[in-house]
Specification:
Elements: H1 3-21, H2 29-44, H3 49-74, H4 78-92, H5 95-110, H6 114-120, H7 134-181, H8 193-217, H9 221-231, H10 240-251, E1 255-261, E2 264-271, H11 281-312
Helix pairs in contact: 1-4, 1-7, 1-11, 2-3, 2-7, 3-7, 4-7, 5-6, 5-7, 5-11, 7-8, 7-10, 7-11, 8-9, 8-10, 8-11, 9-10
């Protein structure tokens, strides 16, 4: 069976698995990778960029290499290759859990239970919930849905289409390392530099595809394109900027502004400044847009993979 068909069937099955099962409460492969990466950090950590680069190479490179070995072992059996692709896709995407967590916060806000929303927010993002009012919580959720659509769904599928199971696993490993050590705290400013920069590079194609598909499938395509062009470059993240700006324009809301992480206050530029303030029911709209983007990503990646295979002739899986 051709490798493009293995990817299409496996990725589709993996997304169905995510839709039906979501993330397990215990024993998730990404959590296991995180524990391994933390153990490596305890051995390697020094306040030095070189040590951080070694940490990134060992963890992300090791995960991708293990996935490549598994793919090679399964290559002779189309069924095994499809099953491996499906399992890897299910393990690395998180669209269903993202939607569930965001919707739970939206439901709490809809009933006026702001404290419940604050308690749930850390499941979705790392902001200080006690510093946020109802509107700020809703804005944080919409921003997190936008960014995690790229990180937890689109980026993984793009790299899966480009490099198969090693691409799926490698992207998720890089993204997880960035979440663990890629922030600008005193401990990780130098040690996490390599993980943060590699995540910027790996996330670039998925972020642009997310922004394009959000504009194409959102309620206001022109508004999405306008906000993307005008405001994406103002965001401190080269990948979150296009995604959040496109979501903001598509939904007609205003994102960005003051936020707090770990007691540190940041003043980020406003995205889609002509939009209205985010309300709790915009969370549901963002979740539905995220789902549409995820499904369209599978279509785009499957089509691209099959067209590439068609130009290159038949290749074994």
């Amino acid at each position: 069976m051709r490798a493009d068909r293995v990817f299409v069937y496996g990725a589709a099955a993996g997304l169905v698995g995510d839709l039906l099962l979501g993330d397990p409460r215990r024993g998730h492969p990404v959590a296991a990778f995180g524990r391994m990466a933390a153990a490596v950090e305890r051995v390697l950590w020094r306040d030095h960029r070189g040590r951080g680069a070694l940490h990134t190479a060992v963890c992300a490179g090791g995960a991708a290499a293990a996935a490549a070995l598994a793919s090679r072992a399964a290559r002779r059996s189309p069924a095994a290759s499809i099953a491996l692709t499906a399992a890897a896709t299910w393990a690395v995407v998180g669209g269903t859990t993202l939607g569930r967590e965001a919707s739970a916060i939206g439901d709490a806000l809809a009933t006026g239970d702001v404290e419940a929303a604050r308690e749930r927010l850390p499941h979705l993002c790392g902001r200080d919930p006690q510093a946020l009012d109802e509107q700020q919580i809703a804005r944080a959720v919409v921003e997190s849905v936008a960014e995690n659509t790229s990180d937890a769904v689109v980026g993984a599928l793009v790299w899966g289409a480009l490099a198969g199971v090693p691409g799926l696993v490698g992207f998720r490993a890089v993204n997880t390392l960035d979440a663990m050590v890629g922030h600008k705290s005193p401990r990780y400013r130098r040690y996490g530099w390599a993980s943060a920069r590699l995540d910027d590079v790996a996330g670039w194609p998925g972020a642009r595809l997310t922004a394009i598909l959000a504009a194409a499938s959102g309620p206001d395509p022109r508004g999405a394109v306008r906000a993307w062009r005008a405001d994406a470059g103002k965001h401190p993240s080269p990948n979150a900027g296009p995604v959040e700006a496109s979501f903001a324009g598509a939904l007609g809301v205003r994102l960005g502004g003051t936020l707090s992480y770990g007691g540190r206050v940041e003043h980020r530029p406003v995205l889609n400044g002509d939009g209205r303030a985010v309300e709790f029911d915009d969370i549901g709209r963002a979740v539905r847009l995220s789902r549409r983007v995820g499904l369209l990503t599978l279509v785009v990646c499957a089509t691209g993979r099959m067209l590439r295979a068609g130009r290159g002739g038949r290749r074994p899986a």
